[in-house]
Design goal:
By secondary structure, this protein is of the alpha+beta class. The chain is built from one helix and eight strands, in the order H-E-E-E-E-E-E-E-E. The protein has one domain (22-117): Beta Barrel (Lipocalin). It is globular. It starts with a helix and ends with a strand.
Length: 119
């Protein structure tokens, strides 16, 4: 009886973990605002690393920014570097993409970003 219960508990846990895997598009259109209110656009490419982590690369105005991120429920967070300073973006998943808010260490204000799947 204990063996059956243990097997069932393992199957329930394994199924729940698999069902909660990270699913993202591989390419996104990026549109955002800088902390000073100016607008920008570009692309973002995502590569899934594991069931909760991903690599991301933005192409904005001819410059590549590389980051690493993770997901929890309907929120994603990623780090990156701009001009030698670390930055952080937090995205909320909605029905048609990701809405983000970002900042750079030591700089006032924050920017916004919308990623829309571009596959």
């Amino acid at each position: 009886m204990i063996r059956i219960f243990s097997t069932l508990a393992f199957l329930v846990f394994a199924t729940a973990a698999t069902a909660d895997s990270l699913t993202l598009a591989s390419k996104y259109k990026a549109v955002g605002t800088n902390p000073d209110g100016s607008e920008y656009s570009g692309t973002a490419t995502v590569q899934i690393i594991s069931d909760t982590t991903f690599a991301i690369q933005w192409q904005i105005a001819g410059v590549a920014y590389k980051g690493f991120g993770m997901r929890r429920d309907d929120a994603l967070a990623a780090t990156y570097t701009i001009d030698g300073e670390p930055g952080l973006v937090i995205y909320k998943v909605d029905g048609n993409g990701l809405n983000g808010l970002w900042a750079i260490r030591g700089r006032s204000g924050n920017g916004t970003e919308r990623l829309t799947p571009n596959d």
